[in-house]
Amino acid sequence: MNKLKIVFLGTGNAIPTKKRNHTAILLSYKNENILIDCGEGTQKQFKIAKISPNKLTKLLITHWHGDHVLGIPGLLQTLAMNNYTKTLEVFGPKGTTHSLSLMQQLFKLKINLKIKEVEGKFLKIEDLEIESEKMDHDIPSLAYSFEVKDQIRLNKKSLKKLKLPNSPLLGELKKGKDIVFESKKIKASSVTYKEKGKKISIILDTAPNSNAIKLAKNSDIVICESTYSKEDKAQALEHKHMTAEDAGLLAKKAKIKSLILTHISERYQHNESKILNEAKKLFKNTKLANDFDSLEI
């Protein structure tokens, strides 16, 4: 069974701390290694995490605020010096093509890029579907979900017992169709099982909005910004961010399984439990992400 894996390379907000670097999240599935945002110093975070940046296949940008993108020139220069030979596919909101082109000109970035501005479902890689939704921030901003649908799998022990060969008949069984083999009817239900799908949603800088709930719906894991405490709600509204309480409410409304808070402000660095507890009052299964934490489903 292939798993979706997440590594948090940065979990802070606009001002980094000793403990938290600027935002960067690496999602891996099969041969894909997808970086969501690339805050300043991300190439160093790769080194600390002992992950080769040369494995990167795609870069997804949520929005073009500095703490989410200022690591791009350094990372791309690192790739160039490490003889990165692939074409790095870059996806992001409106304005991504222009902004990244300026970076390429300014820093003379020498790797091949394929840039696309996206909205809605925009990519399917084998059985992995990636979707975006517009968020409510002060510049164009996207959130992303990564979903592997329910799949019908073949029971290898049952196939061996029935001495079924590797043939198009197996494809029919996977489609849920009964077959006839050596004059014997074989029901698909007797040799197959359903592998439950999985979904991870990543919602960063945004004010609370219906699109965020829609995107997160039924996720196994939602990674959500939690920039402010509810006590600083006025500032959150002014800067179009979520509070920890907002994140907990989103999780509850979207009927998810697990909530992970990130984009933690330096103002709470000596009392991060305040953020965690506010969200947990509304959604019990909540954790606080730290740099270099990893998880898989």
Q: What descriptive keywords fit this protein?
A:
2 domains, seven-stranded mixed β-sheet, 28% helix, alpha/beta
Q: Which CATH-level-2 architecture of the largest domain?
A: 4-Layer Sandwich
Strand-pairing-aware structural class: alpha/beta
Mean pLDDT: 94
Query: What summary fits the major beta sheet?
Result: 7 strands, mixed
Strand order of the largest sheet: 6-5-4-3-2-1-18
Number of DSSP-assigned strands:
18
Measured as a percent range, the helix fraction is 25-40%
Overall description:
The chain is an alpha/beta fold and 297 residues long. The protein has two domains: 5-150 and 196-296, 4-Layer Sandwich (Metallo-beta-lactamase, Chain A), CATH 3.60.15; 152-193, no CATH class. The chain is 28% helix and 29% strand. The chain has a seven-stranded mixed beta sheet with strand order 6-5-4-3-2-1-18. The protein is globular, with a radius of gyration of 22 Å.
